[in-house]
């Protein structure tokens, strides 16, 4: 039963992505419980190993998703999960405030509470806001997958890219790109195709580090201190 809220949040995220009509999403067939166990049953997609052309299509489709105009503040109508951790999506009109208050600070506090970070290693809210304000451009909300690593997409046997297991919200499109690059990247064809639709902006490398910080903190909180060095490196470089 503990998994049911996660499955329901996933179902809602898949529905929102499907409604965008920008990229394929497996149909959700059932989300319920049976004998005190939760389950989520989706359409079966026969998958194949992605080749460079598949990555190109994935980049094109993701860029279309991100390029759609959104009439929304930053955040989402409900909170959801990143992995098994809660992800707060309280709405903000300002991207920096959203990212600091709803992404970085909750994960930093969780790490301190679990003694995975020392309080002296954590920047103040004011410092986080100041640095992010300096490095973030004027941002328009895009609908994000929210957890786009290599395990959360698949390529069908017909070469169609699908997204699965989202942690959706409205945010800066570069967040999804930062996650794709965190553990090896998706290949040059993916990024070239993406940026043909959504051009790369100055300062993307620095923002990539700050956006990856969120996911590294999630990994620190989920999997332990093997991720601490990567976390403290970014904290020291940008906020030290």
UniProtKB/TrEMBL annotation:
The keyword Kinase applies. GO terms for molecular function: kinase activity. Gene3D superfamilies: 3.90.1200.10, Phosphorylase Kinase, domain 1 (3.30.200.20). The keyword Magnesium does not apply. It comes from the Bacteria. Pfam families: Fructosamin_kin. Keywords: Kinase, Transferase. Belongs to the fructosamine kinase family. This is Fructosamine kinase. It comes from Croceitalea dokdonensis DOKDO 023.
